[in-house]
């Protein structure tokens, strides 16, 4: 199968919700995704819609999985900043742990992720009824994506809806995480013979291949013990329970599937860690399964994971700016103490003429030779990683263009906050809320919080466009899964070897002699927890990790998170869903 072009289909699925949730509706939407060469059939359109759900805010918007998995964790927070980001308290609730069944973030994400289930079921029915040349492959992909969406729903909400798409009038079933995880593992394993190896049969890292299945199986086996005993008050999960299949225990299966990926030779660790999150990264050597994004007149990807942390006066181009929203918590920032030279912490940008953007007050100008595609606008490149302290960059003239020097370069100045022009844009690691229990800043405090500039910022106008593919599974994360499985089996030397390989495979910029990361001499569970954070921050995996390590419930007083009860390890079923679907029962505690 060879992917060719983007299509615009207005009538893909006309009774999709009869497959899953109560009621009948038409999607009646554009499916904007790559489809097969040749005439598009209903089955290929339906499969395209399954993949499109990944990129429709679900895994690309800060309000999607990032809000659920990072804002509820010790890594990210979105405070109210003066007149911005109040929004009825829905963002603060994610970190203050005051969310309820009517929280808009929880409701929106439930709708999005279960819509992925719906689209997958519709695709299974359409492909089964169709006669595509690669019917078996398409069907395996649709079933794999069903498992992917179902797993994430079970992880977040403890329950997931299912209706057999091949049985007319089949009853709606509500799967429970403790029971469903075993069947989900078996279902994905059964798909392996039909799935393509990445790069064969026209597939790529934006499709659910055999390698994506290995990654999903690794994740499911690692978290199986939590799913079976989610509310264990001591967080003493049985990670060495006998595996559901294949012999050994759950950790053995994690090691087995991660090793298939690591030893395949298909993937390699990027020496420049931030290449994994850069523009036009579709060929990045670590990407196993990713959301394919592009900028064109039909399908604009989302750059939300990048510009959401940028201050409003930080501009990649004269027409694109940040939003001054999310930031890093003081708790997570402090874990980097003594490790700021780690290549994953931050990286300075070098222009083609050799100019480095130091962002320390020594910069006077930058060349204007980097141009935004399709325009004559100069492109200013910020540094990457975690950014702290006074920020520098271009300012706008009254005409809305970058200030320039007399010799035609971009003038660099100390920046102030857009909504508080007397407040220097000094990103402080400390938040220091006036009320320690509420993540609220006064207008002159909106500079606070270290920022995550992990993803590269697209300079095109409108903020909402991107050519950055979003990793869902990449090789660095697979190494962390295997290291954790080794640790939970008591094989500390193997875990240490994997973590040190991650460290030393990354190198700093040439400004620092391309120095590799430094090995650590020993490892324990707390060090492993820290190291996973170094590798995986801002990639929507932290909340499940915190639960596995028994750290999710603890208070995080410097970022307004109180001690919480185990029931908060899952989110409530939205009240709107409870009102119209009596098959659901509300999760305990809500």
UniProtKB/TrEMBL annotation:
<keyword id="KW-0998">Cell outer membrane</keyword>
<dbReference type="InterPro" id="IPR011990">
    <property type="entry name" value="TPR-like_helical_dom_sf"/>
</dbReference>
<keyword id="KW-0472">Membrane</keyword>
<dbReference type="Pfam" id="PF07980">
    <property type="entry name" value="SusD_RagB"/>
</dbReference>
<dbReference type="InterPro" id="IPR012944">
    <property type="entry name" value="SusD_RagB_dom"/>
</dbReference>
<dbReference type="GO" id="GO:0009279">
    <property type="term" value="C:cell outer membrane"/>
</dbReference>
<feature type="domain" description="RagB/SusD">
    <location>
        <begin position="285"/>
        <end position="590"/>
    </location>
</feature>
<protein>
    <submittedName>
        <fullName>RagB/SusD family nutrient uptake outer membrane protein</fullName>
    </submittedName>
</protein>
<keyword id="KW-0732">Signal</keyword>
<comment type="similarity">
    <text>Belongs to the SusD family.</text>
</comment>
